[in-house]
Write a structure and sequence with these properties.
This is Lactate utilization protein. It comes from Belnapia arida. InterPro entries: FTHF_cligase-like_sf, LUD_dom, NagB/RpiA_transferase-like. The chain contains six helices and twelve strands. The protein is of the alpha/beta class. It has one domain: NagB/RpiA/CoA transferase-like (Rossmann fold, 3-Layer(aba) Sandwich), CATH 3.40.50. A four-stranded parallel beta sheet has the order 1-12-7-4, sandwiched between helices. Strands 8-5-6-9 form a four-stranded mixed beta sheet. A two-stranded parallel ribbon has the order 2-3.
């Protein structure tokens, strides 16, 4: 069925014809300008407090976070986490350039496969597109380098997220996605799927008893790379050295 046929059926159901020109212009303007709704004041904080709020909200929703100074520290953090949780060291990883650039060879016991997740996988590693401080939520748009199955099939999902990708409110995450999702032919596009993940999967539908892993991962563990000096905790004497990552800002002097 064509788009016009679908819209025509909706109009007949509503017993009206096409919208008048003034209403079409109003809707077109709204779609073009993305007007703001009320934004909670709790996320309007200095950068260190904003990142701290993100971490608190993740932990409040039964997720865990480990901060590391740079990408080079990620393999050790993941190896230690898997060992502490008695989880296998073999897992699928999103084939994202920022993840493939990590020096995994420093931890040769980690068996990493760049692919989508399968039902038999116990652990997965995803690339974090953005973090939203106001609720401790991950924004995970689908892409060839960010397979959606990694968010759903494994019992334990690990996500590598840069601190510079944490924003205060949902509107800021949408702004970033719109700005970065561009191509010359269409002038802009949105991913086929966008998942918002707030902690591990859980449900209390049955007798109001909370059950983790009801329809997705039982654990959510975020490895947070402190690549934003402005977001370091108050009192930090020095910032970690900047590291250039594919698709991200270059280190000074590059």
């Amino acid at each position: 069925m064509t788009k016009e046929a679908i819209l025509g059926a909706i109009r007949r159901g509503l017993k009206r014809g096409p919208l008048p020109a003034d209403q079409q212009a109003m809707l077109g303007g709204r779609l073009a300008t993305h007007p703001r709704h009320l934004i909670p004041s709790r996320s309007r904080l200095p950068r260190p407090d904003q990142v701290a709020l993100f971490i608190r909200n993740v932990e409040k929703e039964f997720g865990t976070v480990e901060r590391v100074p740079n990408a080079e520290a990620v393999p050790a953090a993941i190896a230690d986490y898997l060992a502490a949780q008695n989880l296998p060291s073999r897992f699928p990883m999103a084939p994202h350039p920022e993840l493939t650039a990590i020096p995994w060879s420093e931890r040769p016991l980690l068996e990493i496969e760049q692919r989508r997740a399968e039902a038999t996988d116990q652990v997965s590693l995803q690339h974090g597109y953005a973090g939203i401080a106001e609720t401790g939520t991950l924004m995970l748009p689908s892409a060839p380098e960010r397979p959606t199955t990694l968010n759903l099939l494994a019992e334990t999902e690990m996500v590598v997220l840069r601190a510079s990708r944490i924003v205060g409110a949902y509107e800021e995450a949408w702004d970033r996605l719109r700005a970065e999702s561009r191509d010359e032919r269409s002038g802009g596009f949105m991913p086929r799927n966008i998942m918002f993940v707030t902690g591990p999967s859980r449900s209390a539908d049955i007798e109001q008893t909370l059950e983790l892993g009801a329809h997705g991962p039982r654990r959510l563990h975020i490895i947070l790379i402190d690549d934003d000096p402005a977001a370091l905790p108050m009192g930090e004497a020095t910032a970690p050295p900047p590291v250039a990552v594919p698709g991200g800002p270059a280190a000074p002097g590059d």
